[in-house]
């Protein structure tokens, strides 16, 4: 062992010593000393938070149970929908493109776009959505007008798509969200004048009528019904007098019946739904609903097994879209169908919880509108499969195949998540509005700790300066 002397102190230093673990000082260290050491020195790289971890923490910072309830249920439905799209579309995808995964790959791509869009929307403040209400409705109406240009594309008798470079989009799905945000903005600006029907009908009637009318001209009755329900629901949650609302429902129902029976195909379809199918109608109007019921009934309690559907072998049209619930019932049985219903019930409860926890009238109306859209459309889709309603051609939200529908629904849920973030639900405990203004009495131990902290504050400030 060699011994050397420290020239500064004259003390003897003995050869290389094993590194000693630094001891933590008694007081708080200066701010400069709080910087963690670099990886490889004293701290392993695995123990440091990664950039991805920090980003995720920022995204989900200070969230409440309502936020995560809505987010978790939504993501579960999206993943479940991808599985069912893969199962229900594999046969048709192979027949069309010789690829079993073609439809699933497209839906997966739309999910990869929609989920980040939802998370980005959840970061926006309420003022952002209020500011963009008018531009959103103008953009939505403008896109819907494109379906009547050479860019328009029809399918199944509906002229409600645009096709650009081989990609199709359905502007009416984006128009739903734009209509919700715009109606909420107008109702909030008129909230002190809602007792006068002119302040409700004159600003909302023409614009909402134009938006819904454009969808009706494209022959998409199902989407128009959903949009009309959204507007009526927004009026209800804005506090419109019930007699005005009942009158509006009556008038709109009359015009709805006129429109429904104005088309011979709709009249025959409604007649087959009410009176039952005749042998002449089986090949035309009754094929899809009949085979949908057969698929649902053949599943029994536990289903025939995932991927073992027989109806998807070209027996059931739109098996991956409008009638995906029939495939769920066939492959997963009554148990799977009940699970899907339970998930939408949880989704509805999360909307209600966020609505009740929020005090901003704009956020409450938008939350109600999005909830009516998602839950109402799910109920209509399931009712059509069960034969309770005639065929309307609306998909099952978050589950059916369809890129524009999935992205638009995720964007709408992201808007509601932003309300849950900005106005979190109160924590468990006494209501802050009922608390007394008198100070809370402190125990001697709490007073001593507070005094010690106040004495130590100047010392820490001198050390950091």
UniProtKB/TrEMBL annotation:
InterPro entries: FtsW, FtsW/RodA. It is a multi-pass membrane protein. Residues 1-15 have a biased composition (Polar residues). Keywords: Cell cycle, Cell division, Cell membrane, Cell shape, Cell wall biogenesis/degradation, Glycosyltransferase, Membrane, Peptidoglycan synthesis, Transferase, Transmembrane, Transmembrane helix. It is an enzyme of class 2 (transferase). Its EC number is 2.4.99.28. The chain crosses the membrane at residues 67-88, 100-120, 132-155, 167-188, 200-217, 223-240, 245-263, 323-349, 370-392, 398-420. One of its GO terms (biological process) is cell wall organization. Residues 24-41 have a biased composition (Low complexity). Residues 434-449 have a biased composition (Basic and acidic residues). It catalyses: [GlcNAc-(1->4)-Mur2Ac(oyl-L-Ala-gamma-D-Glu-L-Lys-D-Ala-D-Ala)](n)-di-trans,octa-cis-undecaprenyl diphosphate + beta-D-GlcNAc-(1->4)-Mur2Ac(oyl-L-Ala-gamma-D-Glu-L-Lys-D-Ala-D-Ala)-di-trans,octa-cis-undecaprenyl diphosphate = [GlcNAc-(1->4)-Mur2Ac(oyl-L-Ala-gamma-D-Glu-L-Lys-D-Ala-D-Ala)](n+1)-di-trans,octa-cis-undecaprenyl diphosphate + di-trans,octa-cis-undecaprenyl diphosphate + H(+). Its main location: membrane. Residues 1-49, 424-465 are annotated as: Disordered. One of its GO terms (cellular component) is plasma membrane. Pathway: Cell wall biogenesis; peptidoglycan biosynthesis. It is found in: Cell membrane. GO terms for molecular function: lipid-linked peptidoglycan transporter activity; peptidoglycan glycosyltransferase activity. Belongs to the SEDS family. FtsW subfamily. Peptidoglycan polymerase that is essential for cell division. This is Probable peptidoglycan glycosyltransferase FtsW.
């Amino acid at each position: 062992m060699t011994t050397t002397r420290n020239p500064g102190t004259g003390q003897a230093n003995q050869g290389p010593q094993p590194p000693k673990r630094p001891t933590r000082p008694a007081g708080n260290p200066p701010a400069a000393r709080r910087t963690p050491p670099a990886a490889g020195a004293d701290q392993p790289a695995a123990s440091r938070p990664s950039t991805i971890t920090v980003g995720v923490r920022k995204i989900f910072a200070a969230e409440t149970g309502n936020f995560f309830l809505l987010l978790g249920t939504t993501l579960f439905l999206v993943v479940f929908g991808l599985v069912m799209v893969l199962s229900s579309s594999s046969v048709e995808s192979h027949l069309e493109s010789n690829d079993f995964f073609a439809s699933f790959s497209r839906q997966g791509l739309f999910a990869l776009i929609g989920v980040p869009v939802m998370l980005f929307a959840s970061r926006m403040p309420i003022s952002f959505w209020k500011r963009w209400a008018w531009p959103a409705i103008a953009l939505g109406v403008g896109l819907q007008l494109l379906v009547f240009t050479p860019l328009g594309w029809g399918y199944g008798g509906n002229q409600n798509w645009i096709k650009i470079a081989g990609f199709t989009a359905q502007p009416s799905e984006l128009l739903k969200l734009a209509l919700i945000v715009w109606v909420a903005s107008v109702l909030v600006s008129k909230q002190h004048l809602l007792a006068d029907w002119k302040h409700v009908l004159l600003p909302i009637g023409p614009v909402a009528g134009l938006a819904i009318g454009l969808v009706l001209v494209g022959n998409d009755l199902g989407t128009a019904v959903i949009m009309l329900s959204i507007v009526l629901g927004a009026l209800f949650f804005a506090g419109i007098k019930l007699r005005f609302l009942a009158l509006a429902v009556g008038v709109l129902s009359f015009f709805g019946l006129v429109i429904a029976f104005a088309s011979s195909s709709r009249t025959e379809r409604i007649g087959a739904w009410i009176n039952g199918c005749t042998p002449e109608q089986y090949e035309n109007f009754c094929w899809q609903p009949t085979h949908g019921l057969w698929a649902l009934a053949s599943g029994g309690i536990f289903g025939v097994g995932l991927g073992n559907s027989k109806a998807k072998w070209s027996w059931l049209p739109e098996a991956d879209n409008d009638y995906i619930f029939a495939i769920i019932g066939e492959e997963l049985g009554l148990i799977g169908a009940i699970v899907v219903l339970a998930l939408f019930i949880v989704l509805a409860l999360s909307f209600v919880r966020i609505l009740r926890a929020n005090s901003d009238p704009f956020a409450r109306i938008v939350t109600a509108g999005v909830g009516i859209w998602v839950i109402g459309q799910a109920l209509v889709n399931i009712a059509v499969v069960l034969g309770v309603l005639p065929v309307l051609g609306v998909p099952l939200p978050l589950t059916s195949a369809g890129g524009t529908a999935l992205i638009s629904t995720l964007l709408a849920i992201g808007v509601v998540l932003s309300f849950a973030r900005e106005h979190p639900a109160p924590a468990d405990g006494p209501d802050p509005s009922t608390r007394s203004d008198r100070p809370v009495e402190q125990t001697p131990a709490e007073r001593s700790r507070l005094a010690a902290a106040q004495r130590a504050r100047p010392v820490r400030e001198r050390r950091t300066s």
